[in-house]
Amino acid sequence: MLNFDEPRFISIQSGAVGLAAPLDRKVGELLADGRENLYFLGAGGAGVLMLPAAQLLERSGAFPVHLQHAAEIVAMGAADLGEKSIVVIPSLSGTTKESVEVLEYAQARGAHVIALTGHADSPVADQADSNFTNFAADDTSSESFFLQSLLLVLSVMRARGRCDRHAETVAQLATLPELLLEVKRAFEPRAAELAEAFRDEPFHIITGAGSTWAEAWYYGTCILEEMQWIRTRPIHSSDFFHGTLELVEPGVSVVVFKGEDAARPLAERVEAFAPTVTEKVTVLDTADFDLPGIDAEVRALISPVLLATVLERLSAHLEVLRDHPLTTRRYYRRVEY
Is the model's pTM score more than 0.85? Predict the structure, then answer.
């Protein structure tokens, strides 16, 4: 595969699923200590990657959960963030300015801060009450963060009696690293084809629903915009027909992410409409990816993981065809982080 280190990928994703037991122990301790709510407070893309897990917990009714922008919480506050709160801060670098500030804000109010970091020797890792480091880089962090947040939430649900299949689910997730590698290998030819089709596109409308919406936002904003300087319009599939459809015309690229949860029909509605206007419709359907040993219930939980893993292959080809390395930035040195 182009520009890809297979052993490194396996090591990183194995590290993510390997956090299942320590995360479960920590969650059990905190809930036994009387914690009453959970806040996911990430900055930028890392914060968005927490969305599927937060929504899963919210819809289960097992435990009060909030997903907020870190900087906005610091600026505006939250009445019920305090001594009975668990705060989860994902930060790949562990140095992000907003993450450090919200960590200090949460601790000042007595919350217990759990950090999910990619680097142990970092301010967020050092200052958190509990830190879980799984080394990763930009090309491997999405799957890692999706899986860590999912495991954490499943532990909350188990402790609250809302996850009867916890052990079975965790056992299936433990097999994912090797399965994801095979998904990447199988997708490689299509990744090359899509990169060729996308290389000169100036604008993409990207849509998803349910657990895939986070990846639609993340890939459009953090990869195509930030790392390739390509304009995008991420839009939730349920909102597509309330404005964004008017931007669709012949020649406009529409990219549809289809997952395997109950929100799938929302993406299918966009999939049915877009080809009536534009010839440039790309559908990525997680149901097309072979995952031996993973049942339908678990597949529904990991749709964003699957999308992240194949989109990394697309990105690897795009940066070569466009002669624009994914690490190239315009303004990072001019912004305080």
Answer: yes
